[in-house]
Amino acid sequence: MGLGFFASIIxxxxxxxxxxxxxxxxxxxxxxxxxxxxxxxxxxxxLGWIGIxxxxxxxxxxxxxxVGASGLIAAVRAVRS
Length: 81
What we know:
Elements: H1 5-22, H2 29-49, H3 58-80
């Protein structure tokens, strides 16, 4: 069932913000939300391929979003340099 639209935006924004703090990236609110949501979606897909499924509650999705958004920030940095 998932988190729902508004919960995904809130968790995605929080995950993106935390990831930007960890990675010391200077991103805005909108980009934090995008990074968190896309990072969580990509990492959930990758984890699903190897048989690991994060629960459909906010805390596991927050952790997955933080790790996924951090990975996206690192990937963008690698491509830019």
